[in-house]
């Protein structure tokens, strides 16, 4: 077994452990600070961070536990690896640029934020580059990946309209109105596409073997 192959097999388990622990820690903090279990769960699943870290967890765990299943084979596809890598990288960068100043600076909340927004994205990028090095995915692929963000954006707006609570200030319709909110969403979508195309280009340029 080569060093590269061993690393590629070991990384998914490590990422699953880190992301799983971070998700459980964030869930514990949300339940602890919430007024009800139902309300806490609604809050928990309102954020793109939780959505995408759950996606990362499934991407790493299912191919390890049930590789022959339809779900296991799906998450082993290289275009899916790219989608998950681009999505969690976008989460980390967006958090750092737009939200980190308002996040907790110590304690368990700080630890959860560091794991969910920095540690997991960094590990997934390493895993993604190992799996995708030398891979030439179709140039149209990022537009398919972007559907994930579009689904989340629509969900966040519908959820906000129903419970009068938006997960992020830059998509708060009550404060900004729909025109500005949609504009912000389109700008974020464009940023995601640029990031995704950068990932595709890097993977194409990397040698097939390290």
From TrEMBL:
InterPro entries: Pr6Pr-like (IPR049713). Keywords: Membrane, Transmembrane, Transmembrane helix. The keyword Transmembrane helix applies. This is Pr6Pr family membrane protein. The chain crosses the membrane at residues 12-29, 41-68, 80-98, 110-130, 142-162, 182-203. It comes from Dyella flava. The keyword Transmembrane applies.
């Amino acid at each position: 077994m080569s060093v590269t192959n061993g690393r590629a097999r070991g990384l998914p388990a490590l990422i699953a452990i880190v992301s799983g622990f971070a998700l459980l820690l964030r869930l514990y903090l949300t339940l602890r600070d919430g007024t009800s279990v139902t309300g806490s769960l609604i809050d928990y699943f309102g954020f793109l961070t939780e959505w995408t870290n759950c996606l990362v967890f499934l991407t790493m765990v299912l191919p390890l536990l049930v590789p022959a299943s339809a779900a296991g084979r799906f998450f082993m596809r290289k275009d899916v690896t790219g989608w998950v890598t681009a999505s969690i990288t976008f989460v980390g960068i967006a958090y750092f640029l737009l939200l980190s100043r308002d996040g907790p600076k110590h304690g368990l909340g700080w630890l959860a934020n560091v794991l969910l927004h920095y540690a997991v994205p960094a590990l997934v990028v390493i895993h993604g580059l190992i799996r995708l090095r030398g891979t030439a995915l179709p140039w149209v692929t990022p537009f398919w990946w972007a559907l994930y963000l579009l689904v989340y954006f629509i969900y966040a707006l519908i959820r906000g309209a129903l419970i009068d609570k938006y997960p992020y200030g830059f998509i708060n319709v009550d404060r900004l109105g729909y025109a500005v909110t949609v504009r912000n969403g389109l700008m974020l979508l464009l940023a995601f596409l640029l990031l995704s195309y950068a990932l595709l280009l890097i993977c194409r340029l990397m040698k097939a073997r390290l």
